[in-house]
Design goal:
Blueprint: H1 5-10, E1 23-27, H2 33-37, E2 51-55, H3 60-63, H4 68-79, E3 88-92, H5 99-102, H6 106-113, H7 124-137, E4 141-142, H8 144-154, H9 160-173, E5 179-180, H10 182-188, H11 190-204, H12 208-220, E6 222-223, E7 243-244, E8 247-248, H13 257-269, E9 273-276, E10 279-282, H14 286-290, H15 292-320, H16 331-340, H17 357-424, H18 429-444, E11 471-476, E12 482-487, E13 491-496, E14 507-508, E15 516-519, E16 526-530, E17 535-540, E18 548-555, E19 562-567, E20 573-578, E21 583-587, E22 595-596, E23 608-613, E24 619-624, E25 629-633, E26 642-644, E27 650-652, H19 653-659
Helix pairs in contact: 7-8, 9-10, 9-11, 10-11, 12-13, 12-15, 15-16, 15-17, 17-18
Amino acid sequence: MRAGLIPRLRTPVEGEAEVPPAAVRILTPGADPLRTHADRIVPVPGSDADTWLIVDQFEELYTLGAGPADRDTFIDRLVAATDADSRLRVVIAVRADFLGRCAEHPGLTAALQNATLLAGPMSRAELREAIVRPAAAAGLIVERSLTDRLLDEVEGAPGGLPMMSHVLLETWRHRSGRVLTETAYEAAGGLHGAVVRTAEQVYGELTAPQAELARRILLRLVAPGDGTPSPTLGFAQAGGPPSRRPTEHAELGFGSPADTRVVLERLVRARLITFDDGTVDLAHEALITAWPRLRAWIDAERDRLRVHRSLSEAARTWQALGQENAALYAGSRLDAARDAFPRDLAPQDRPGNELTPLERQFLTASLRRRYRTARVRRTVVAVLAALTLIATGTAVAALQARATAQAERDDAVFGRLTAEADRVRDTHAGLAARLDVAAYRMRSTPDLRPRLTSDAGRVLATRLPGHDGIGSSVAYAPDGRTLAGGGHDGTVRLWDTGTGRPLDEPLRLSTGPVGAVAFSPPDVDLLVATGKGGGLQLWDVRDRLRPRAVGRPLVSHDEENVVSVAFAPDGRTLATAGDDGTVRLWDVRDPARAEPYGQELTGHLDTVTSVSFSPDGDALASAGYDLTARVWTLDTDRAADHVCDRTGGVLTRAEWEEHLPQLGYRAVCEGR
């Protein structure tokens, strides 16, 4: 295509009556051909000459995730070139094992009936020309024994031509003067070894983090296959032949930017990958079959690669649709993506992440939607349960009233029977005896009707007045003599638990309804209350009758609501949790200048509903609507040889202090 047809189109043979084309355009479909190439699949306007469109690697329509509707629309645009008045001429190059897929489109099938040229393997004479004539054009000589050896090895070999291209380049690099020798060919590694030697050499020169980045980058450039075996490429195992997957440069935005740049530069310099218009691609599809290391990666990751390709496409669609909830994952697809990429679920870059920020955002949003849907479902169930209880309570009350009325009626009848028996006992002894028996039976016969009983707790105090509206949170002071309560009216009230009377005027927040209140330990005597939009306010309550605000109001949690707070046992640290799915720690040793410690604790995928310190203050537990609980170790100053990092690995103290000094609070361990 590029060495013969395209130069021939651009430079017509002298003496022939052909009109030069208005333009020769070359493209590969990619994952979204309509969006990427909409302006290139139309003829040059205002020209009487034809516009030639060369579509190379047409099989990408079937391997890179284009939807059936988009695929058919793109093919319709190409097939329109068969119209009599069209000034567009289309040439499609497609791998032979995808001809069956091309026949799925009726218009393309009709176009291919009389316009197909099967490019079979080159003859031995054609292969010889491909070896010696380019060398001669560059003033080089190819040793005859090398030419014969190459012909023997390339003829009939799957993927032989791109491997021959690579080994000739490496042979040229090992040449002696102007001659390409068999000795230089062997030094380059031979036909199959040249690509492998180049790839292994580049891979071996990388640091461990860079080598891991190289693995992830190369796997991004591979489509794992869809179950169509291809002996042509040397693959016959289940899962089908992998193929190249041109990828936008932005999709490689994971890991250290500096390391990513180094890896890409070295792969390009070794001619293992190429850059073209912001797209990264494998230089040779033969690299997939020839390099055992890459083949092993693909075989080991085949299922995850399929999940990843679907996830990448879904994330792009979600972004294109303005991040509509309807485009998020659900059901089994979400389960598969969550299980395939568990390390990427925290909303920040960490070593080992495999997803781009967009993919991670898409997956996290999908999980958040699931948890919130589950929360709504649980809320509906709770409301229905409450309504059921109300209905049951009403029925119980009715039955109890009925039972009481029945008992009162029975007592009245019993009284009348015994009174009448006494009245007639002297004159009608038989009748009196029968009345006594009837009264006795009323008292001794078991009551077969349902008996409904309940035990009521004793009310310890009267209703505590103070809030104008709903109360939202309460907390006892450590001395047990004071109760604090927050309300939707934006106030905090203090009550004397002995008298039930409020101690003073209410403490007022400036940020809306109170979400949570908490007292510090006795020797600190702070009260914290949280308001709307992440607001926090501290009060000094050592004098219960005259509490005073301390410092400025604090704002945290990305201005989302704070729903839970807790003081450490020593009173020096405050933990807050919010609707943004994070936990934050605050240094309140000097309440007037309270400041957050380091970074937020992340990992929960939905609202964190509760936080609690361990009795020794060395650990913090958090729980949330994402159905998980996490434990964070906060103090590593005690004698210990190792501490855990937040990804579950182990770092020495020296490594911890070298790499993560920004985590001033040293929140290091998490678990489920």
